[in-house]
Amino acid sequence: MKKIINILGAATIALGMASCSGALDVKNPNNQTTYDFGNSESDLKEAIISCYNRIRLEGTFARVGYTMDAVRGDEVYNPGQVWYLPYDNLNVANTDEIGCQWIWRDCFHVVNRCNYVLLKVETAVKPGSEAYNQIKGQALFLRSLAYYELATYYQRVPLFTDYSQYSSLETMFSANVEQDEVFDLIDADLAEAMTLLPSRDKGGEWATGRATCGAAAGYLARSYMFRHKYAEALDVLTDIIDGKYGHYELMPDYGMNFKEGVEFENNSESLFEVQFMDYGKGGTDDEWTPVNISRNASQGHAVESNCGPAANGSWGDLAASPWLYNLFKAERCTDGTLDPRLYWTIASYESEYNSYTGAKTAAYPKGDPRCNVIYTEEISASPVTNAANGGLVIAKNTNARNNIYKDIVTGLKCGVNLRLMRYSDVLLRAAECENELHGPSDLALGWINEVRRRVALPDLKSSDFTTADALFEQIANVERPKEFGCENGRGIDLIRWGFFYNQERLDQISQHSAYLLQPEASSEELTVDTAKDYSYKYFKPGHEYFPIFQGTLNANPKLTGNSANDNHDNAEEFLAKWNVHPVVK
User: Which of 55, 226, 267, 551 minimizes the number of CB atoms within 10 Å of its CB?
Assistant: First the structure.
């Protein structure tokens, strides 16, 4: 009996040891690395979603990556917190993190993930297959989107195009390159993405938020125009208008571009937008940075926290300029009413809004943001303020006109998708390119009038624009600010037009940016002489770009500063290649 027991015991021990040996080969699926993940089509479909996830960080488009360009423009300024003030004044020090480091950090996080996908897709998926084209096309688009942000914020940045560059400090510590080289990569990525991606007409996810060939085409035109390649841009833009990259059209109501909900977002006017979870449907944890990873993420953005009225709980960081407000008021629709774009851009109170909306409210449900009380006829019609220092509240991309909730919960909570490019931009860019190439033609005016007719403004007439300079003035300082006021993009426009490199133009945008610092918001038309202050009073040449963060320069010995780090005036280089349109009164 003892002998049998000993034999059974030995067998048990042997079997146990064998089973333990086998268990050592089992890999934890929750502990995957870049070496054992990404080797199948299903893996890479997950990986590309993670690339989209990173464009909704604070430094990409969930907050400062979006708002920093708006404050760089002449229609938005900082009336409250000191955080945005040096960026508004365009004289920020290279030790300030929010614009000098956060945008850089998060955009390169997008680049990193896209490069991983671009490496793996070549061996994991059959080249030329539908899955290969879709995965690679999306990665190319998202990488180019990140580099477009980097090049227009920081001018000179390192180029990472191969995931193997991250394998050693020698290759990871890359030198920055000239801006033209960055745009060469952007152009190449987008041109290839246009050939790989389906259009929004395919339906499904391609019509509800995925990057499409239309999105790639729109951004390629933007990239071309930054370097004044107007003929190349016009070819792409007319193809978009002709439907080559899918069907796009203006929504009948301008406000449909700034509402949340499946019935409004990803509509036929949108070429590309950042997807955010509708208010109250996400979690409670704010994912500000790449290391903030939570299953309970709120999945919203903080633009409303910056732009909404302080009386309703926002930080009150940014405000619309009186110039923009009065630009809207200067021209009436054909029926004598206000341009409805004012309602969706600035949260001012106008008595006409009662008939426009059918609701007796100025902004936010059942209340008036000037005093946060129930609406009464006795409330004065003074403009709304959003900070102790005054300032007209920005309504765009907030809940001000959506009437979903009354008070603002600061953080990444707002659910309005940020439309990064709309069809109206295609039309106005096509008109600008046509004007640059052939002057104020009927074709250019037709595209502009298509945008104006949407809001019932009278058509522009060719007899009013006898020179290309005159029509450019109308596009740059009337049509574009009224259509895209308080959105991301105005600062980039001012750079590509050379407004920082011509004193007459710098004087002009200084007048636009004039504001008062007082408890009450003011819509008074101002000049730099009658204003309390203006955004470009403290502008240092070269600081139309943001400096590269000093900590980043210290960490990478191959990296050098840009024009903002060196206080280098870019005027000479710009004017050697391109002209600046003279101001037409």
Answer: 551
Dist. CA 473–CA 581, nearest whole Å? 8
Angle at 578 between CA 573 and CA 583, to 5 degrees: 115
Q: pLDDT at position 2, please?
A: 43
Tokens of 254: 């301008």
Closest CA to 268 of 200, 321, 335, 329: 200
366 DSSP 8-state letter: T
Cα-only R_g, the chain = 26
Which residues pair with residue 392 across a beta bridge?
320, 385
Q: Evaluate whether 56 touches 64 at the Cβ level (below 8 Å).
A: no
Pair of tokens at residue 153: 């914020």
Strand partners, 533: 515
Residue type, 454: R
Tokens of 279: 């208010």
What is the rounded distance in angstroms from the CA atom of residue 173 to the CA atom of residue 196?
A: 32
DSSP letter assigned to residue 487: S
Predicted local distance difference test score (pLDDT) of residue 572: 98
267: closest CA among 401, 70, 424, 45? Answer: 424
Give the pLDDT confidence of 101-118 residue by residue, as tens digits.
999 999 999 999 999 999
How does strand 319-320 pair with strand 76-77? antiparallel
Cα torsion at 501, 329, 490, 578 (round to 10°)?
A: -40
Structure tokens at 210: 């995925």
Other Cβ atoms within 10 Å of 280 Cβ, number: 12
Low-confidence ranges of the chain (pLDDT < 50): 1-21, 359-361, 366-381
Measured between alpha carbons, how far is 277 from 297 in angstroms, rounded to an integer? 10
DSSP code for 356: H
**How do the residues of the chain divide into helix, strand and coil, expressed in percent and rounded to 5?**
50, 5, 45
* Two tokens, residue 348: 């001012």
Bridge partners for 421 per DSSP: 272
Q: Buried (b) or exposed (e) across 476-507, using 16+ Cβ within 10 A? A: bbbbbbbbbbbbbbbbbbbbbbbbbbbeebee
DSSP secondary structure string, 146-191? HHHHHHHHHSS-B----GGGGGSHHHHSPPB--HHHHHHHHHHHHH
Residue 22 and residue 179: Cα distance in Å, rounded? 55
| Dist CA 264 CA 454 (whole Å) | 17
Give dist(CA 366, CA 344) in Å, integer: 17
Give dist(CA 333, CA 121) in Å, integer.
52
Q: How many residues in total does the chain contain?
A: 585
Tokens for 53, please give them.
């996830």
Q: In whole angstroms, how far apart are CA 496 and each of 104, 320, 337, 491, 540?
A: 21, 22, 34, 9, 17
The CA distance from 562 to 568, in Å, is: 8
Helices (H), 85-129: 85-88, 97-100, 102-124
Q: How far apart are CA 281 and CA 298, in angstroms?
A: 8
Query: How crowded is residue 403: how many other Cβ atoms within 10 Å of its Cβ?
Result: 16
pTM to 2 decimal places: 0.92
